[in-house]
């Protein structure tokens, strides 16, 4: 009925335990979840719930996963949108979509609005002043964020790889109050992420194998690590199809896939 996609049910049931590393981000978001679950405890201390949380950092590091996990962990509805969904060629469509999104959010008891690539609607206004339509869309977002009370069960989570180009008005208190940096995973975090994705598949990979892959995949993001595990699953499946032993992922599968991914990364 509109451009927002509502995720519900098990398919998208992401929990914090499905997300490797990012301990700081998780504990910062856990506080938001606790607040949403028991607002009275916090408000009795005069604390207000951040209206917006900005997750910023390189692509594929789990920003969308974290936002989904927040929604699931606090039993809120999750509205997924992308900044570019609001960048319209037809006059008035961008602001209208923002209004509709907040209207839908208000119809739920608790709702997390996730805006991925928020930079594509929230870049600094005066630098793009030729584009009036984009300015109007951003203004609408700002006024919607000003318009709701913290206690009304709506939290906006924005994600971006380019926080430096955002309009300063978005970063002011009362808008994206809390900013959380998401980094590329360190070695121990890469082990965590590999183990999370291996645990969802048939595998004979040992912890030594995981360590070895984590060691050589410096600067790899969570999504690139997931892809290595997926490629290793393909290798195991190909073996199973040929009936050569079981189709479980082996140490040499995942190591070969990691080496190939490293070469690809270097050549791109
Ligand atoms: P983008 O900035 O490109 O939107 P993102 O930071 O939102 O990326 P996600 O969409 O959350 O990244 O991650 C993409 C996929 O990568 C996930 O579905 C998951 O399979 C894997 N992934 C990324 N980070 C992690 C992580 N920390 N733990 C486990 N899996 C991860």
Automatic annotation (TrEMBL):
It is found in: Membrane. GO terms for molecular function: ATP binding; ATP hydrolysis activity; ATP-dependent peptidase activity; metal ion binding; metallopeptidase activity. Its cofactor is Zn(2+). Residues 251-268 form a coiled coil. One of its GO terms (biological process) is proteolysis. Residues 49-186 form the AAA+ ATPase domain. It comes from the Eukaryota. GO terms for cellular component: membrane. Its main location: membrane. The keyword Cytoplasm does not apply. Keywords: ATP-binding, Coiled coil, Hydrolase, Membrane, Metal-binding, Metalloprotease, Nucleotide-binding, Protease, Transit peptide, Transmembrane, Transmembrane helix, Zinc. It is a multi-pass membrane protein. The keyword Metal-binding applies. Belongs to the AAA ATPase family. This is AAA+ ATPase domain-containing protein. It comes from Euplotes crassus. The lineage of its organism: Eukaryota, Sar, Alveolata, Ciliophora, Intramacronucleata.
């Amino acid at each position: 009925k509109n451009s927002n996609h509502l995720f519900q049910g098990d398919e998208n049931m992401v929990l914090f335990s499905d997300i490797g590393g990012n301990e700081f981000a998780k504990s910062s978001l856990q506080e938001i979840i606790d607040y949403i679950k028991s607002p009275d405890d916090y408000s009795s201390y005069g604390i207000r719930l951040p209206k917006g949380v900005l997750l910023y950092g390189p692509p594929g590091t789990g920003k969308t996963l974290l936002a989904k996990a927040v929604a699931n962990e606090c039993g809120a509805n999750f509205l997924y949108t992308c900044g570019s969904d609001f960048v319209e060629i037809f006059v008035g469509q961008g602001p209208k979509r923002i209004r509709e999104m907040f209207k839908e959010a208000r119809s739920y008891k608790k709702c997390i609005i996730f805006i991925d690539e928020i930079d594509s609607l929230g870049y600094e206004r005066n630098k793009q002043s030729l584009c009036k339509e984009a300015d109007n869309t951003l203004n609408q977002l700002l006024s919607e964020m000003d318009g709701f009370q913290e206690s009304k069960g709506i939290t906006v989570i924005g994600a971006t790889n380019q926080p430096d180009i955002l309009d300063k008005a978005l970063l002011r208190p009362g808008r994206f109050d809390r900013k959380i940096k998401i980094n590329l995973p360190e070695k121990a975090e890469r082990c965590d992420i590999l183990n999370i994705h291996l645990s969802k598949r048939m595998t004979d990979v040992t912890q030594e194998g995981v360590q070895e892959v984590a060691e050589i995949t410096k600067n790899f993001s969570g999504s690139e690590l997931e892809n290595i595990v997926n490629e290793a699953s393909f290798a195991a499946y190909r073996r199973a199809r040929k009936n050569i032993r079981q189709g479980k992922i082996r140490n040499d599968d995942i190591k070969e896939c990691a080496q190939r991914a490293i070469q690809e990364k270097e050549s791109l």
